[in-house]
Amino acid sequence: MSESTPPKKPPLAAESEMHCMSRRSFLWAAVATGSALSGWRWLITQKPDDGVPWPLRRTLQFNEKLARNLYNPNALAPLFPRDMATEPRQNGFFGMSDADGNFMTIDLADWRLTVDGLAGGEPLSLTMADIKMLPRHEMTTELKCIEGWSVVVHWAGARFSDFAAKYGPATRSGAKPDVRANPNDIVEYVGLATPDEQYYVGLDIKAALHPQTLLCYEMNGKPLTQEHGAPLRLVTPLKYGVKHIKRIGLIRFSEDRPADYWAEQGYDWYTGH
Ligand SMILES: Nc1nc2c(c(=O)[nH]1)N[C@H]1C(S)=C(S)[C@@H](COP(=O)(O)O)O[C@H]1N2
Ligand SMILES: [Mo]
Q1: What count of other Cβ atoms lies within 10 Å of the Cβ of residue 244?
Q2: Residues 42-63 pLDDT 10s
Q3: Rounded to two decimals, what is the model's pTM?
Q4: Less Cβ around it within 10 Å: N or C end of the chain?
């Protein structure tokens, strides 16, 4: 071997370097996937680094894997230490405003939740006392907005699955609903809307029944403020903020895909992340 030939790395070192690189690519993919628009801008401005393969392909594979994972009821959104929770900005007041777009409060004593698409046929009108009778669940998760910001929040509320199990959505077979033992027989979708029906979101039933999908009444240890959706909002941390509808007035189970405010503006109907 001549003096100028660089020493060959022992195979072990080469292997561990490759491992390191693919791990780094994976992290890029995670970062790029994590914050849609800013992530995309970040990705397209990256220069290839030392011949490390361009992470885009991995990112796409990663996205697809996440979308598929959503259909695995065991896949969970990351949890955070409670002391990382901060106050999110007040963002998005469709269905909470007057015709000029000014935020309007509601009289919480008059609020009722209409529930439709139940096996029993007749719609129900529920109060917050009904919701608070369901088991309370708390979690600290990340709220991600498609605008590119995210914030860790501590939430408390009822699991949507407990709500569904108690009130009995319509089934496809027409048999008695059993949300826990036979979730595949429950109708495909849930639509949720504000009392004025000016903001509305659709969820596939699997996302609705996911253990981290909450009908939420507390944020960071305090009752929800009206700006954040009092008395009841949705939290579903495998989806973007658009699906976290505030001031829910109506929940409707259906076999048809419900209308969705942001899907009508061209966003992906599922908006998982
Ligand atoms: N009723 C209603 N709910 C809504 C919205 C809205 O415009 N109206 N915006 C959504 C969006 S885009 C986000 S990011 C979150 C923000 O929740 P926050 O105001 O508690 O931070 O609310 C969601 N829920
Ligand atoms: Mo958002």
Answers
A1: 26
A2: 444 444 333 444 454 455 555 5
A3: 0.78
A4: N
